[in-house]
Amino acid sequence: MVQSSLLEPLPTRKRVAVLLPLPFPYPLEYVVPAGLSDSLAPGDVVVVPLGARRETGVVWEQTTLPPELTPPPPPEIASTRLRPVKEKLDLPPVPRALRQFIDWVAAYTLAPPGMVLAMALRSHMRGTQGAPAAGWVRGEDPPATLRMTPSRKAVLGALGETPMTTAALSEKAGAGAAVIRGLADAGVLRSVLMAAPSPFAVPDAGHRLPVLEGEQDFAARELRARVAERAFSVTLLEGVTGSGKTEIYLEAVAECLAAGRQALVLLPEIALSAQWMDRFTKRFGARPAVWHSEIGQRARRLTWNACADGSARVVVGARSALFLPFRDPGLVIVDEEHEAIFKQEEGVMYNARDMAIVRARLAGAPAVLVSATPSLETLNNAETGRYRHLVLPSRHGGASMPETRLIDMREAPPPKGQFLSPVLVEAVKSTLARGEQAMLFLNRRGYAPLTLCRKCGHRMECPNCTSWLVEHRKRRVLCCHYCEYVTPVPETCPACEAEHSLTAIGPGIERITEESGEAFPEARILVMASDTISGPAATAEAVAKISRREVDLIIGTQIVAKGWHFPHLTLVGVVDADLGLGGADLRAGERTMQLLHQVGGRAGRAEAPGEVLLQSFAPDHPVMQALISGDFAAFMAEEAEQRRPGFWPPFGRLAALIISSESADAAQNAARALGRAAPYGEGIEVMGPVPAPLAILRGRHRQRLLLRTQRTIAVQPILRRWLAEVPLTSAVRVDVDVDPVSF
Ligand code: ADP
Ligand code: ZN
């Protein structure tokens, strides 16, 4: 070994670090073979050996991170032990700004950088090899050796002048895809990229300008000025629902387009944004590029490339759109910034709202956070001057805010076994009688959240999770909403074997729909929940039906709370306003207030005034009082005062360790070991271990430790040292959640 390495002229062996989409703590090193020595640069996509496998990765270089985020350097490895890079792939390189962002997200969340890369480049790195041919045209004449079967002849006969997809060709010829494949292998068919109309037409920045006056005009000017500065800044655009926030941030987008730069808009639920898309299209005369988990492989690759070459001018997307390789990003917008959905809760646990700000900072571009009910973090940043703050206090065009009233469920309860109080039923009836639309909101899918035996009290629980099974009556099953467990509703109680003794307790929207069918027999009812309306097309259709007034009563879960504009909707009834306030989560009040305000904001967005009715058993609760008075600033100030003394976010920093194992003992022992090694010091505190909020999830037992520090102390170095100190067995997994959304 030693001898052979002495034979090599050491200095000429150029090394490169290659980040692989795998959970290694750092990029792995390789040597550059002679053939590639001049052509490999950071960002290039390469194939390297790993054990007996070949892996695709990206040539990496250390980017600079703030000191507290910088991970320890990888161990030194002698060049002689390194293996050579196999080949460089013909794919657009990963730009420097994106590599830097990937390093940042990894360092901040303590995720292995390769896992962030894997998430960022899911479609990109699969490579072009084996990519489906876009369309078929005639290639060479059939060779003499190829037997021309009837189906092969049919395929050639069906082929026209313009390229045809496999599906189209196979249908027209009445032959299977295998026949087409065979002809392609023989060279008789040739694949070409089909010319498709570009989805990335340049929006017309001057199209159909709304007339902005007063506060709207001021806010739009401010945002345009930020874009024109071409420098990093963060602005909070706060305004009640219907005040014109979207209209105003589209002004900033227009400014960004006029400057020739790219704009990114993050929306909480991109699949649901058909209305947003229409509005954008009307405003700019072109569609934006769209990015979310449901777009196809081909669209992904096109969009990725179009971002990299700058031809995608506006991208609207879900959180993962942050990882697109923008060539010249000039604006980053986060709409509904308070939404918890921006936090990814699995794999790399990052908050897209916060990382959007990092992305903007690395790009030297302004970020705009938009909300009617900003999170306490964001409000605090605005109050302390870290963010600029623009406020739109009233609805556009004189539309008034809906009047919010409480229905005290202790005083006027619904008849036994029902969930709509007489007051709410009457209000819905008179709304429908006026020819207006009403909405009933309940954030719970299925028929009933709990099924129990009337004889023995047995509760139907998930065998894999600490949760009750939810009855879905239409499908005649009990489902766990945390794992995929589904079982038919049993005829007899599994505990005492009594027959027909199982009873549904509490309402889900299926049950509210049943009750509404009886209370409002004439009404045309539309149910909107993620399991009844799935995918963008179905959602768009549902929304269109509502706009066309083909629906009288909408019954929905949180889907209906999104930023929809339903001009004929004047009444929103919240079936259980207290739902979500239970439990020990410190953020429950803030979140309930945000959700219910958002739902209520759907009412009365046009001429007819709106009304919101909240059914509550706790009408004195601060959340209910805030919803009635509309004084969110006072509510949030009160929240702040509760969190400030204990250094709870945003006044301190928080990280959770979730220790999980299939064995309860293993999880507990590991959690205790981590607890014993807990960091300490001035301004540092560790709480737990205690069973995590879902103590068993998908068959894994979960314990939680919470690290809380004062704001001036970064949690990452503390966590890194802590985790390095406690060796764990492979039966135990520790997930680190920096800035958990609930605590
Ligand atoms: P928000 O995003 O704050 O809920 P929107 O931007 O959706 O508010 O505005 C609510 C409605 O009012 C939309 O239909 C919007 O087109 C309209 N609107 C807002 N401002 C103007 C304006 N200056 N001129 C014309 N229409 C406006
Ligand atoms: Zn379960």
UniProtKB/TrEMBL annotation:
GO terms for biological process: DNA recombination; DNA replication initiation; DNA replication, synthesis of primer; double-strand break repair. SMART domains: DEXDc. Zn(2+) 2 binds at residues 462, 465, 480, 483. Its cofactor is Zn(2+). InterPro entries: DEAD/DEAH_box_helicase_dom, Helicase_ATP-bd, P-loop_NTPase, PriA, PriA_3primeBD, PriA_3primeBD_sf, PriA_C, PriA_CRR. Belongs to the helicase family. PriA subfamily. Component of the replication restart primosome. This is Replication restart protein PriA. It comes from Acetobacter oeni. The lineage of its organism: Bacteria, Pseudomonadati, Pseudomonadota, Alphaproteobacteria, Acetobacterales.
